From TrEMBL:
Cited CDD domains: AAA
Entry keyword annotation includes Nucleotide-binding: yes
InterPro entries: ATPase_AAA-3, CbbQ/NirQ/NorQ/GpvN, ChlI/MoxR_AAA_lid, P-loop_NTPase
Organism: Georhizobium profundi
The name this protein goes by in its record: MoxR family ATPase
A GO MF label: ATP binding
Domain ChlI/MoxR AAA lid span(s) in chain numbering: 262-329
Origin: domain of life: Bacteria
Ranges of residues in domain ATPase AAA-3: 57-190
Presence of keyword Cell inner membrane: no
Keyword line: ATP-binding, Nucleotide-binding
Sequence similarity: Belongs to the MoxR family.
């Protein structure tokens, strides 16, 4: 996972506490503003925000019509980020994302190439229905998501900071979709599953969104303040116990590491990026919850969104009707028993 933030000057303990209190107020305002527009879906809002606060990208997976796009647009507004949206379709080309070179001719007839930047040059990129586009086009995002720059005709072009990709995806069993390559999936800090709303939330959706006026969200932060909070999260202390819990969970999810259930159910497991993601997101979750240091509970709560897109079921597990959710839940349970 590329380090997105500039190196911050380490804070002493009192300064971290003061900064965390200010960040908590900001996060509370963000949550209140998002709640004006997105009803229910608390875990979806939380996980998507954690990915951004941790400085990473998120993949939102769910059937159409569950307000995935609306959530991304709302977060762009509330966080004060410049946002662009790309609708991924089968005929989308890499140049439609990155940009392309055009030939200019001056008054004297001299010709030269000029790079016209594509929509990827923004702070919050919404990649809508990312799995509708061909693998070639999907891979155009790889360098941007990892290295925060794109190379065109040998020239490096830096992306704005901060840079986040929030992609939405329809479940793969739907027609006309292409599975995302493993290398690209690994670039997403978290996969956020968007499920159907609870009854009361759906009632509120009906009442609030079918009238003459709908609520709008307002900006709470700007990009500079978001980067300050991201830098703070990277400086939050993590105990040895939590580090050990992260390592044992990630390693237990890999076949060939002595876990019999994993060997039977998992074809390939998470790499070191999964541990990095858990470490960052656990810190962000602690702050989101009003705590100054992450606990093992944070690791357990984040296991599914951080690990599920970095693993694949074995043929035997698929034949038994198992899901990755089941496998990860069992790993978390067995870790708690040890």
């Amino acid at each position: 996972m590329g380090a997105m933030q500039p190196t911050a000057t380490p804070l002493d303990e009192k300064a971290i506490v003061r900064s965390a209190e200010q960040a908590l107020e900001d996060i509370a305002r963000i949550r209140a503003e998002v709640a004006k527009v997105i009803f229910g879906q608390d875990s979806v809002v939380e996980q998507t925000l954690l990915a951004i606060l941790s400085g990473g990208h998120a993949l939102l997976v769910g059937v159409p019509g569950l307000a995935k796009t609306k959530l991304v647009v709302t977060l762009g507004t509330v966080l004060g980020l410049n946002a662009n949206r790309i609708q991924f379709t089968p005929d989308l080309m890499p140049s439609d994302i990155i940009g392309s070179e055009v030939m200019d001719q001056d008054d004297s007839g001299k010709r030269s190439f000029r790079f016209v930047r594509g929509p990827v040059f923004t702070q919050l990129l919404m990649a809508d229905e990312i799995n509708r586009a061909s693998p070639r086009t999907q891979s155009a995002l790889l360098q941007a998501m990892q290295e925060y720059h794109v190379t065109v005709a040998g020239e490096r072009n830096d992306l704005p900071a901060p840079f986040h990709v929030l992609a939405t995806q329809n479940p793969l069993e739907q027609e006309g979709t292409y599975p995302l390559p493993e290398a690209q999936l690994d670039r997403f800090l978290m996969q956020v599953d968007v499920r159907y709303p609870e009854l009361e939330a759906e009632r509120q959706i009906l009442l609030e969104t079918t009238g003459v006026r709908e609520s709008d969200a307002s900006a709470v932060l700007d990009a500079a303040r978001l980067q300050e909070i991201q830098a703070l999260i990277r400086q939050m202390p993590v105990s040895e116990t939590v580090v050990d819990a992260i390592l044992s969970l990630v390693r237990a999810a890999r076949p060939g590491n002595g876990n019999e259930a994993t060997d039977r159910h998992v074809a390939w497991g998470p790499g070191p990026r999964a541990g990095q993601a858990l470490m960052l997101c656990a810190r962000a979750r602690a702050l989101y919850d009003g705590r100054l240091a992450p606990s093992i509970d944070d690791v357990d709560a984040l296991a599914e969104p951080v690990l599920q897109h970095r693993m694949a079921l074995s043929f035997a597990a698929r034949a038994e009707g198992m899901s990755l959710r089941d496998v990860i839940a069992d790993l978390v349970k067995s870790k708690a028993r040890r």
